[in-house]
Amino acid sequence: MLEERFGAVYSDGPGMPPLPTRLMAGLAEWRLARVSTDYHVELNTFFYSVPHSLFVSRSI
User: Fold this and answer.
1) Does the residue 37 lie in any domain?
2) What global pTM score does this model have?
3) Pick from 58, 39, 56, 60: nearest CA to 48
4) 54 confidence band (pLDDT: 50, 70, 90)
5) By residue range, what is the domain housing residue 53?
6) Is 11 left (phi over 0), alpha (psi -120 to 50) or beta?
7) What is the mean pLDDT of residues 1-28?
8) Gap between the Cα atoms of 55 and 60, Å rounded
9) Interval 16-50: pLDDT, tens
10) Is residue 54 included in any domain, yes or no?
């Protein structure tokens, strides 16, 4: 049913451009961040949720 409605969107036909042959630099930004107790990190005033396994509790 989806293929009938959206076949043009989901098919990789001959109209698709070829993949780039060189690496595209500058598309990612890597930073260290501290995971809060609500499992979020802040980057450029935006909050992103992360897996709970990345939270490290510090018991004193």
Assistant:
1) yes
2) 0.47
3) 39
4) confident
5) 30-60
6) beta
7) 67
8) 16
9) 777 777 777 777 778 888 888 899 999 889 999 98
10) yes
